[in-house]
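Quick question about two entries, pasted in order.
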Amino acid sequence: MTALAPHLSAFLREHLPRERGASQHTIASYAHCYRLLLTFAAEQRKTQPSRLSLEDLDASLICAFLDHLEADRANSARSRNARLAAIHSLFRFLEYRVPSCLDQARRIHAIPMKRSVQPLVSHLTKVEMQALLAAPDPNTASGLRDLAMLHLAFAAGLRVSELVGLRLDQFDDATMPSLHVIGKGRRERILPLWQETAGMLRRWIAVRPTGVLSQDDPQLFLNAAGRRMTRSGFAYILRKHAAVAAKTEPSIAGKRVSPHVLRHSCAMHTLHATGDVRKVSLWLGHASVQTTEMYLRADPTEKLEALTALDPPKLQPGRFTVPDKLMAMLTETSNAPNYAE
């Protein structure tokens, strides 16, 4: 039996950061997946997670784990596929370190991704976005922080990891205020900011805590304890203010307002303003314009030109005739299954 713990530790602490150059967000996401997997496997094998062997993670257990994600944890097919991708990555690493698991790894690699419906992106309208930005109280330090985060998440179209990972030196408060963003795949981009957004950042920085915990912390946004804001912390803040905004704009209550919805909202508003999907792609930091095309599917105005270029079909007027009830009954009976005589 091959102990799993040393190889899993080497994968997360050495292979991903050093050889693959993965970001801390990617490593954290993979670690969360393996924590779920080992918890499930330990329950199935009736042992402790630290005592699991590599052979315990066979293809049948992986399939049971994926079913558990969808049935018990209510994960979507996309989340299920993301977990499976992390497992595939681990076993590609193990193939070279433990050649004896080659057949086991091939069986796991053969587990297919699940096809899923690609829904239209959800976003907030201009009125809904204004109601959300009016929710925080600007007379308190926490309200200024929340307002600055909401402004920045929408105006810059930031991913939640990019937002909570911002440092003070990434905000350039010059003649043209701008933000230096290090995005997914270590792609960097410079984004100019509205004067209103830059003003909210200045107001927050002026009241930003400077206590013992925060004086040496370079992070732009801090929580109530003076430590770096987390992804879950911002998600909680967003849900709280969305509930307040729903009182003045009830349509918000029917939407799931997540941090990524603010990014979608920025993309849709930018597309409406420019009509150029390439500019939206550059603004969001997408690696390919193909990723940005999902906003075109959600925007009906982009299809109006095609609609107006086509002539509607000419329909011939007809006259409706009421069917004979007796003949309809005979037709229905004749099409029914044969009965025994």
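Here is the second entry:
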Amino acid sequence: MKRLLLVDDEQPALDGLRARLHRMSGKWVVEGVNSGEDAIERMQRQPYDVIVTDMRMPGMDGALLLQTVSERWPQTIRIVLSGYADLKQIARLVPFAHQYLSKPCDPKQLEGVIDRCVQLHDLLHGAELRAIVGRIHKLPSLPRIYSALQEAVRNDKITVSEVAGLVATDSAIAARVLQLVNSAFFRLARRITNIEQAISYLGFTAIRNVAASVELFAQWGADDRSPLDPEKLQSHVLAVTAAASALTTKTPIADDTLLAGLLHDIGYWVLAQECPADLKKALDLAAAAGIALHEAETRVMGASHAEVGAYLLGIWGLPYSVIEAVAHHHQPHRVAQNQFDVLAALAIADALVPVSDAFAADAILATDARIDQSYLTSVNAPFDLNEAKRRVAEIAETEEVSPL
């Protein structure tokens, strides 16, 4: 049975929340404490799958509590439930909280968030991998993009479109911006997947805080132990994003598909930072055995970059259609499909863009030939394979790889 720990210094609020979550008692053990210190003491005695904490508490506040939990129990999913939406406070929480819910919170919303987070365990069966993702506080950004963004937001004449163009060229920065704008602190009527809309909604002050926060972004090091070339990987990501966009132009799924393309390899940002040796083993295995790299990653680590990335995006609360597409873009047949959706568009685009040369290898990595005309027919794609190839080739020839 899953274990949930609620933390709030106000006993009536704590009792009320536990009472409203009584429906979960059959599948959850729900416990509550009145301080961050008590929460740490309780977690030392037994592990919890999810912790939900208030932000403002005497002594150890919610941000410090979640920082401690992230360091000592990284596999625990961390949620903030607060009535305050100060941007500086939110910036403190971003590295350590997976999701942010605002008070008053509908119990059904909280229950849905918790259930959805725990269901993500099906993506990463191993607690060790979940702990690796849970430890992530920073994602490595490209130094040139990060520096350009810092400079841009200090320019009074910069436009939202220009800032969005910069954000969209770095997957790590884009992921953080979308995580922030889709938090419940901002009480949006719907989730935002369009980067320009996200920046317009947040405003330059919030983007400036994100860009200035050294707690959010690491730097790709020149002496990185990872075999990955970040510039080439980002170029591949943008090529796939442009291809996916070309396949969904003027369709209702265009924004979600663009975001899925931009984030589809975000798992490599995690693996390069946390598991460079295992990533190198997977690369060597793929080259030696002539298999697709994602298959080699699964053999070595128990999951590929696709599942790792989807798990991260899931606990960050990004839209399900994006999570599903990221998780299965190499193996779309694992999902029952009868319509052309975000997953189908991303899988087709990824299959038609040349294999990334972002990895140094002694042998050419095998392609993953799984997308053919029968697949397009099965998902009712609004084009045949030849037309899909034409659209992708046209984008490549014009070098229109920017997703905006």
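Reply: The mean pLDDT is 82. The two ends are 45 Å apart (CA to CA). Hope that helps.
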